Amino acid sequence: MRQRFLGKDPMVFDARVQVQMPSAAEDQMQVPVHVSAPGLTDVVDVLVFADLNPLPKILRYQPTSAAPDIGFRFKVEQSTPVRAAMRTRDGVWHVGGAWLRASGGGCTAPSVGTGQGLWQDRLGEISARLWPQQPGLERLRLRMIHPMDTGLAAGIPVFHIDRIDMRASDGRLLASLQTYEPVSENPVISVDLQHSGPVRIDAHDIQGNRFAATVTP
Amino acid sequence: MKRRFGIGAAVLVAASSMAVAQAANDYRLGAQAVAEGVYVFSGRNEHFTRDNGGNIVNTGFIVGTDAVIVIDTGPSLQYGEQQRKAIAAITRVPVRQVYVTHQHPDHYLGDAAYADASIAALSATISAIQTQGNALADNLYRLVGGWMAGTQSQSPTSTAQPGAVEIGGRKLRLIGTAGHTAGDLMVYDEASRTLFVGDLVFHDRAPTTPNADLLQWLNALDQIRQIDFKVLVPGHGAVVRDASAIEQTRDYLQWLSTSLHTAAEQGRDMVEVMNQPLPDRFQKLAVHDEEYRRSVSHLYPAIELTTLPRR
Questions:
Q1: Is B158 helix (H, G, I), strand (E, B) or coil?
Q2: Which positions in chain A touch B311 (Cβ < 8 Å)?
Q3: Which residues contact B224 (CB under 8 A, 6 or more apart)?
Q4: In this structure, what CATH number is given to the domain that contains residue A75?
Q5: Which of A204, B76, B114, B202 has the fewest Cβ atoms surrounding its Cβ within 10 A?
Q6: pLDDT for residue B254 is more than 90
């Protein structure tokens, strides 16, 4: 995992990097995770992966003007460690994680919407809201309609959102998120932006479909 | 000679391990009389484990003149068989009718022990068992292991029609409602004023919500409050003779609904909601930590969507 994801960069296990989630998956298609790093500053890159998932890489997050905290849900195939690696400005990866118990079937099962056809009519629809926390800090929660197909379910090709950028109204990048196959269908994301005021969301999927919306507090 | 000894030892080992398996799979069901001709088998206030074999549920039976009515058959074929034996130890009257209160696997997977009886459930329950039953049974195999040997989900044989019915001289009232699941059947015995409420009421154990509609469930509790019962048999937890278990269930569900809606309005992420501590008064409920987190998984996704306007 280290070689594959962190390369030759220096790495330390760091208790400040927290991966919070239930110890057992109630719904293998929608395991909630909240990653944070209280006390760790200057985080420029966040990588979240599940060692034993058939597709381990879940997401990558660059909190340019944001806390290194992100909430999301993902699909799990079997019991696995879930880890967050956070690279600080000095080039060191700080790694934390937790164990998740699960009994099988999240990644290789078809998405719910693939059966219902929901996404065919409403692909990329964005629902979102901003919650000002304190001056200069606001929480963004967003949900997009997308099947997020892993390509592992028989007969259903891979099809997922791969990038969600969050910008100030002047175009300045606040945070950038790359989502991979394991992120749950119709993703719900929570981030804490160091920003006050409207946020523009620009996203696209691996087939080049573009989705955009503006959220005002 | 040596070889023969080897085979003998192998047979011996196999025989003794079978004996151990059989002894371990004894649910030790003892019927408790709760009213004239009305009995309950009480399960433990726990989660499914390999120790309890899934016996975390209350089931019961009502003895009529020429028919016994069974309410729920437990989590496995072996439970159903042992339940039937325990009933036969109390009465020689045969079991003619089984009622399944709802679709959850701990309540009906013993049905196969009653192949010669009529097995009835609400139509919503039957269709849920037909679509989800096998998956639920598989999951229970994973949780409790060998206790499930031979168990298969099977569909009830007839649809329960809410209303009055007389079986073996016992006047019963079947009450169809919903909330814990899409179909929740209650069985009321007129003579003893005993009410089998299924999982609409939990007692000193946190309610489960995988198929719940909280608003419907709270309405069903109002309906239960109007019933003139003397004995109330909850789906999980000790039998009661007053409304305390109903109120406890209502208190928990109302708190759950309010706190999830409040958290969503505050922009909380699902894991943050799971990490919220429960109020002191719910700390005494068995398995409250696990069930609360499970409930957040079940209910929060729909609730949070109501706070995220479309852009």
A1: strand
A2: 126-128, 201, 213-215
A3: B186, B195, B197, B200, B201, B246
A4: 2.60.40.2470
A5: A204
A6: yes
Helix, coil or strand: residue B114: helix
How confident is the model at residue A102, as a pLDDT? 87
Distance CA B43, CA B239 (A): 11
Per-residue pLDDT, B142: 86
Number of domains in chain A: 1
Residue B1 has pLDDT above 80, yes or no: no
Residue B129 belongs to some domain of the structure? yes
Strand positions, DSSP E, chain B: 32-35, 38-41, 59-63, 68-71, 95-99, 118-121, 158-159, 163-167, 170-177, 184-189, 194-202, 231-236
% of chain A beyond a pLDDT of 70: 94
Q: Is pLDDT above 80 for B4?
A: no
Residue B16's CB: how many other CB atoms inside 10 A? 10
ipTM of this model?
A: 0.92
User: Are A21 and B271 a contacting pair at CB < 8 A?
Assistant: yes
Q: What is the CATH number of the domain that holds B79?
A: 3.60.15.10
Domain count, chain B: 1
Q: Is residue B287 part of a domain?
A: no
**B34 vs B55, B186, B238, CA distance in Å?**
19, 17, 11
Chain A residue with minimum CA distance to B143: A103
Q: Please, where are the H alpha helices in B26-185?
A: 77-90, 105-108, 123-144
Which of helix, strand or coil describes residue B237?
coil
The tokens describing A76, both together, are 């799990």
Q: Supply the angle between the helices B244-265 and B288-305 in degrees, to the nearest 10.
A: 50
**Pairwise CA distance, residues B171 & B169, whole Å:** 6
Please judge whether A71 and B310 are an interchain contact, meaning their C-beta atoms are less than 8 angstroms apart.
no
pLDDT bracket for residue B167 (50, 70, 90): very high
| Domain hosting residue A63, numbered range | 2-215
* Cα-Cα-Cα-Cα dihedral sign, residues B205, B208, B212, B213: positive
Q: Cβ neighbours of residue B251 under 8 Å, at least 6 residues apart? A: B281
Q: Taking a C-beta distance cutoff of 8 angstroms, is the pair B198, B235 a contact? A: yes
Phi/psi of residue B257, nearest 5 degrees: -60, -50
Nearest CB partner across the interface for A30, out of B142, B274, B301: B301
Give mean pLDDT, residues B10-17.
Answer: 43
Does residue B291 lie in a domain region? no
- Per residue in A51-67, pLDDT tens? 999 999 999 999 999 99
Q: Please, are residues B97 and B70 in contact by the beta-carbon 8 Å criterion?
A: yes
* Cβ–Cβ under 8 Å, residues B151 and B133: no
Tokens for B194, please give them: 């005993």
- Note the pLDDT tens digit of each residue in B65-118: 999 999 999 999 999 999 999 999 999 999 999 999 999 999 999 999 999 999
Among B274, B296, B310, beta carbon nearest to A127: B310
CA distance A52 to A1: 10
- Does pLDDT of B53 surpass 70? yes
